[in-house]
Write a structure and sequence with these properties.
single chain, 187 residues, mainly alpha, DNA polymerase, domain 1, 0% strand
Length: 187
């Protein structure tokens, strides 16, 4: 139960009189302020991110959707979740991403930035944000380490590989075994 002191009641009465003198209905102003507060809560980053997730992850695998939501819940919502999306600027997002990066999860920080960018694009498309601050962060995070995968590029070695594969396949047929030959994938 809220207890209103006489002093507070007189202050509120004076504020109401001032609003009436300025042509403002105090009751309508109170309702408008309450709606604005509710609107700000509906336009916070977390609400919009969950809306984006429900819409855009419906055609993705369940595991991917779960991983994406876990990333948001653990690494982004604690720092940006309650903020109105229209007020979030590049330094706010960078601070959240740096926290991820500081624990050594550089690739996760890049993935979080990508996901946040998708949320901001959704907010812009639905009229709840004016801009996406993620492109401003290009180069602000530590680059990820590129892993190079071995590949045979020498035509002679490719030929030797194919001959060996063919010989193994023919040997298995002669022995009465049935194997399915592997397919050479080209990129």
């Amino acid at each position: 139960m809220n207890i209103l002191t006489l002093k507070d009641a007189r202050t509120k009465q004076e504020e109401a009189k001032t609003q009436l003198a300025n042509g403002i209905d105090p009751s309508a102003a109170k309702i408008a302020a309450k709606k604005a507060k509710q609107g700000a809560a509906a336009n916070c980053f977390e609400v919009i991110a969950r809306e984006w997730h429900n819409k855009h992850m419906s055609n993705k695998s369940e595991g991917h959707g779960t991983r994406t939501m876990r990333l948001l819940e653990q690494d982004v919502f604690p720092w940006l979740g309650k903020l109105p999306i229209i007020d979030i600027e590049a330094p706010d997002v960078l601070a959240a991403l740096k926290r991820i990066e500081q624990r050594g999860a550089v690739e996760t920080a890049h993935r979080a930035a990508q996901t946040c960018g998708q949320v901001f694009r959704h907010a812009i498309a639905t009229g709840r944000a004016n801009r996406n601050p993620i492109p401003d962060l290009k180069g602000a995070l530590t680059p990820t380490k590129q892993a190079h995968h071995a590949a045979i590029t020498d035509p002679v070695q490719i030929g030797a590989l194919m001959l060996q594969w063919w010989a193994d396949y023919l040997d298995s047929l002669k022995a009465g075994g049935v194997i399915v030959p592997f397919q050479m994938k080209t990129a």
